[in-house]
Amino acid sequence: MKVFVTGGTGHVGESVVRLLSESGHDSRVLTRDAEAARAWAETIPRVYPVRGDITGGVHQLAEVMKGNDAVIHIVGIIIEKGTPGFEAMHTEGTRRVVEAAKQAGVKRFIHMSALGAREGAVAHYHRTKFAAEQIVRESGFDWTIFRPSIIYGEYDEFLNTFAGIARLSPLIPVIGSGRGKLQPIWVKDVARCFVSALEMSETFGQTYEMGGDKAYSIKEILRLLLRSMGKRRIFAHMPVVVARMKAKMFDYLPGKPPFTEDQITMLGEDNVCDPTPLKEAFGLSLRPMEDYLSERFGK
Ligand SMILES: NC(=O)c1ccc[n+]([C@@H]2O[C@H](COP(=O)([O-])OP(=O)(O)OC[C@H]3O[C@@H](n4cnc5c(N)ncnc54)[C@H](OP(=O)(O)O)[C@@H]3O)[C@@H](O)[C@H]2O)c1
């Protein structure tokens, strides 16, 4: 197939694009920096970067989308600062990508959402992700929506950031109690579902929650990470009110904030699901996080 991918140069998208290539599909990868993406794409057969921006004109997006059999829409942000914001990126960006796909005559649409997306969610991230899902549901396309919990892999921010801190510092900062649960899933398992779904008509009109086989508290994940690195560190708990004050302060300082108020809000609820429907639909066995941690961070 010829597949148009948004977000294909990112942490998750790269694995999707690599697997598309390995599976014999061509991908046209939307990027704001086609020059930088060209060198990267040279290392992956059948991958062609195309310049574009999901906050830009629909007509331009439709032009670069023409001739494709499917769209995989992955673009999303977790931190608004320095970007056009959640509404513009998730909701309006998805509206544009959907509209462009209509103009380009592409009917198969695979959409990246997030676990916790729902109407009236406390986090702005989840509310805008849900609004984007609704646009996809109402598109008239053959759509499939995926809602992953946290995704780990070579380029993820969560494990890599904490591994970096653990290498340098005796203290590991934890916001609040660190008891909030996540259900991490390996990026290559996520990619398998996205790529397999392309040709599975039984996934049309379906929304799949995605998580690994086990839920862990944030502190459990950090303990497993430290164990794989062979390090002992002390957890330095930051009360949520203090973290919120710091997050407000980061808004006024230059650069990317280490965390935001919206992320603190998300930490206040568990981000877990039952992976059985996903595993059954895609015939998957999911990689245990412990296995990945020892391969990536073990000595
Ligand atoms: N990471 C997780 O744990 C996780 C969990 C659940 C859901 N998700 C969702 O998965 C998606 C990907 O996350 P990620 O962690 O892979 O993100 P990422 O590494 O930050 O990648 C972001 C991608 O979006 C592209 N992009 C950003 N702004 C754009 C714009 N205005 N127009 C076109 N492309 C744009 C970037 O391409 P260029 O820089 O090349 O333009 C890049 O390919 C997001 O929707 C996120 O909400 C992620």
What does this structure look like?
The protein is an alpha/beta fold and 299 residues long. It contains twelve helices and 13 strands. It has a domain at 2-151 and 185-211 and 272-283: NAD(P)-binding Rossmann-like Domain (Rossmann fold), CATH 3.40.50. The strands form four sheets. The protein has a seven-stranded parallel β-sheet with strand order 3-2-1-4-5-6-11, with helices on both faces. It is globular. The termini are far apart. The model has no long low-confidence stretch (mean pLDDT 97). It binds NADP nicotinamide-adenine-dinucleotide phosphate.
Spatial ordering of strands, largest sheet = 3-2-1-4-5-6-11
CATH-assigned fold name of the domain at 2-151 and 185-211 and 272-283: Rossmann fold
Query: Termini distance?
Result: 41 Å
Identify every distinct bound molecule in the structure, by name, code or SMILES. NADP nicotinamide-adenine-dinucleotide phosphate
Fraction of residues in β-strands: 15-25%
CATH architecture of the domain at 2-151 and 185-211 and 272-283: 3-Layer(aba) Sandwich
The profile of the biggest β sheet is: 7 strands, parallel
CATH superfamily of the domain at 2-151 and 185-211 and 272-283: NAD(P)-binding Rossmann-like Domain
Q: Which regions are unreliable across 5 or more consecutive residues at pLDDT < 50?
A: none
- Top CATH class of the domain at 2-151 and 185-211 and 272-283: Alpha Beta
Report the total helices: 12
Rg, Cα atoms, Å? 19 Å
Secondary-structure-derived class: alpha/beta
DSSP strand tally? 13
